[in-house]
Amino acid sequence: MSNPSFTRAEIEAGRRLFAGDWQFKAAAGSLPALPAMHGIEIAFAGRSNVGKSSLINALTGRRALARTSHTPGRTQELIFFARPPSSLVLVDMPGYGYAAVSKSKVAAWTALIHAFLQGRANLARVYLLVDARHGLKPVDDGVLDTLDKAAASYQIVLTKADEVKAQDLAARVAATRDALAKHPAAYPEVIATSARTGAGMPELRSAIARLLKERGMSAKGANA
Ligand code: GDP
User: In this structure, how many other beta carbons lie within 10 angstroms of the beta carbon of residue 160?
Assistant: First the structure.
């Protein structure tokens, strides 16, 4: 995989940042229900079934922290996970693009997400998950627009890379990077991952650790 490269020290910082006992912190289906801003938040978004729950579980080393969904579109809540005393907070955003969801639900989702993205000063980045087998889909466009409009820093993570041959994966990464060129808030690099094999997880953890470092936050409370 042609993932961004990190030094050994950065890989270790990423490992330490995610090691330890991640816990459910809060769930919010509306703006008033959002928990107080605390620490630095990293959010994960993507179409229903993209593999978001599996990715969060793989990142945190917890088998069932985020529940893998058997009913896509089921939850319209933002779910917050924390690992005290670290100040990193992970935010699982509701999946979108499930055909059976009514228009009013889609509108409610968009309104909540837009408000969250615009008002969350401690949100450092959104990772937008895209299935490596399919690449960006028209249904992702609205979300890219929302992220651009909110001027949220975001990066694409390809999921289920184990399902794609190496050369197809390289082409998918290249095509995704090209598509991002017209999105000003998008981080140009793409990270390919597999929750199933663990591929790309050290890089994703290290990318987050690097981001926190850039924001002046040490991996405080990270387990050795
Ligand atoms: P969510 O709806 O985005 O939270 O997606 P889930 O994590 O529930 O995963 C949706 C489906 O994709 C499940 O059947 C998972 O087993 C499968 N899946 C998730 N991650 C991977 C992966 O890395 N590789 C493969 N092959 N399948 C995956």
Answer: 23
Tell me how many degrees the CA angle 8-11-12 measures, rounded to the nearest 5: 85
* 129 CA: nearest ligand 1 atom: 3
Task: Report if residue 1 sits inside a domain.
Answer: no
Best residue for ligand 1 mutational test, from 1, 44, 49 (most atoms within 8 Å of Cβ): 49
43-97 pLDDT tens trace:
999 998 999 999 999 999 988 887 755 555 556 789 999 998 899 999 999 888 8
Total tally of structural domains belonging to the chain: 1
- CATH (domain of 168): 3.40.50.300
pTM, two decimal places: 0.93
Question: Three-state SS for 130?
Answer: strand
In a domain, 30, yes or no: yes
